[in-house]
Amino acid sequence: MKFRELGHTGLRVSAVALGCEGFMQKAAAEVKADLDHAIGLGINFIDIYSSNPELRTNIGAALDGRRERFVIQGHLCTAWENGQYLRTRDVQKTLRSFDEQLRQLRTDYLDVGMIHYVDSEADFRTVFDGEIIRIAQRLRVEGRIRHIGLSSHNPVVARMAVETGLIEVLMFSVNPCYDLQPPDEEVEKLWADESYAHTLHNLDPARERLYELCESMGVGIDVMKAYGGGDLLSADNSPFGRAMTPVQCLEYALTRPAVAAVMVGCRSCAEIDAAVAWCDASAAERDYASVMTGLEKFSWQGHCMYCGHCAPCTAGIDVAAVNKFYNLTVAQGEVPETVREHYRALAHHASECVACGGCQTRCPFGVKIVDAMRRAAERFGY
Question: pTM of the prediction?
Answer without folding.
Answer: 0.78
